[in-house]
Amino acid sequence: MDETYQVRVIGRVESVLRERGEAPKQGDEGGPDAWLAFDPAVARGLGELTVGQQVLLLTWLDRADRSVLAVHPRGAADRPETGVFATRSPDRPNPIGLHRVTVLALDGTRLRVSDLEALDGTPILDVKPVLGGAADER
């Protein structure tokens, strides 16, 4: 199987986190608030997002090692090596980041979000609402 697809970067993360060693393993483990800066060409796509809303942010983990197929979970050498598809490791063949965050503020084509462990400059691929409730009808 040798299919390829192109994705378009629609924005970038603006964060105080600059190096992988600074970032928590998951956003709910101390991820800081961060800004998402979107390309003006996708501004209409941000319509109807609201402060307080939870969203799933998909990013491209551009500093990941795409050759990795197995890891020691959470970098703990005492844990058995595990296939990356059974982990949340950023190192994997297609390093797509999945982050559950809450919208804290909206400012034009910028969103401030909570608990984001992505590094500064990380490319944004997509944003989707967390389902559960009246928003499911969108």
Write the layout of secondary structure elements.
Elements: E1 11-14, E2 34-38, E3 54-60, E4 70-71, E5 82-83, E6 96-107, E7 110-113, E8 123-129
N to C succession of SSEs:
EEEEEEEE
Number of helices: 0
The quaternary structure here is single chain
- Write out the strand line-up for the largest beta sheet, numbering strands in chain order: 1-2-7-6-3-8
- CATH third-tier fold name: Elongation Factor Tu (Ef-tu), domain 3
Number of domains: 1
Question: Structural class from helices and strands?
Answer: mainly beta
Instruction: Please report the distance between the alpha carbons of the first and last residues.
Output: 35 Å
Strand content: 25-35%
Please summarize the sheet with the most strands. 6 strands, antiparallel, barrel
CATH C-level category: Mainly Beta
Q: What is the β-strand count?
A: 8
Low-confidence parts lasting 5 or more residues at pLDDT below 50? none
Proportion of residues in helical segments: under 10%
| Overall CATH architecture | Beta Barrel
- The dominant shape is globular
Let me know the average pLDDT: 91
How much is the radius of gyration in Å?
16 Å
CATH fourth-tier homologous superfamily:
YaeB-like
